[in-house]
C-alpha cells in the first residue's frame, strides 16, 4: 500500500512495485495524477501483470487509513506499507499561521504514525513486513523559510528509528527515505524550485548536476522493501544526488 500513490513519488513507487510483481493499493485523496496521464491503477494494469486498487483516503483520518489497509486483504494481505503522502508549504516563522502548521503536521507526521500503526497490526499476523516512511533531506538539515516542513520531516526520521526498535523484534523492518530535489509537482508547483531562476541556483550544489527523478526514489523504495534489504532496519536512505554529502 502506498499513501499519496496517485502522483509524484508515490505514483512511481506504485508502478515500480507492480513491475517487480507486487499487487498494489493506491490510497490518495484524488485519482487523477497531478502531472497528468491515466490514474495510477490503470497505468499498472496497462503496463504490468499486477493487480491494483485505488481507495479514496484522507491520511489524516484514522478510519480512512484502516479502510485502506483493509483493502489489501483482497490482494493477499499487507506486506509493504509506504507512508508517502505529504505536503509542502513554504512559510516564514514570522508569518506562519497556526492552521497551516497543524495541517502540515497532520499530513506529514500524524499520518505516518497511524499509517504505521494500522499496517503493523496487519503485519503482525504474518510475522513480517516492511514499512517505508517518506522523509526528506529537509528532515536532516534545517533551511530558513521551511521550519515547519523541516520539523515534520525531522519527526518522521526519528519516528522511523523508534518504530524500527519497537517493531524489529516482531519481524517488521522500518526505514526512511530522504529524497532531495525531485522533479515532481511539489518542486515545480507547490514550492517552485525547478524552472525558476532562484531554484536553478541549487543545481550547481548537486554533485550529479541534475534534478532527481521519481523513478529513482522508487528504485530506492523497492530496495528497502525487498529481501535485498533484509538486514536493513532503522536506516535513512538519502536519494539526493549528493546534495547533502553526508
List keywords for this structure.
alpha/beta, Rossmann fold, 41% helix
3D architecture notes:
This protein has 246 residues and is an alpha/beta fold. The protein has a single domain, classed as NAD(P)-binding Rossmann-like Domain (Rossmann fold, 3-Layer(aba) Sandwich). It has 8 helices and 7 strands. The strands form 2 sheets. A 4-stranded parallel sheet has the order 4-5-6-7, sandwiched between helices. Helix 1 packs across helix 8 and helix 3 runs parallel beside helix 4. The longest helix has 29 residues.
Structural class: alpha/beta
Q: Low-confidence segments, ≥5 residues, pLDDT <50?
A: none
Question: How would a textbook summarize the main sheet?
Answer: 4 strands, parallel
Helix content: 40-55%
Beta strand %: 5-15%
CATH C-level class is Alpha Beta
Specify the CATH homologous superfamily: NAD(P)-binding Rossmann-like Domain
Rg over C-alpha atoms, rounded to the nearest angstrom: 17 Å
CATH topology: Rossmann fold
Quaternary state of this entry equals single chain
Q: How many domain units?
A: 1
CATH architecture: 3-Layer(aba) Sandwich
Overall geometry: globular
Overall mean pLDDT score?
A: 96
User: How many H/I helical runs?
Assistant: 8
**Secondary-structure element pattern, one letter each:** EHEHEHEHEHEHHHE
Total count of strands? 7
Distance between the ends: 30 Å
Largest sheet: spatial strand order: 4-5-6-7
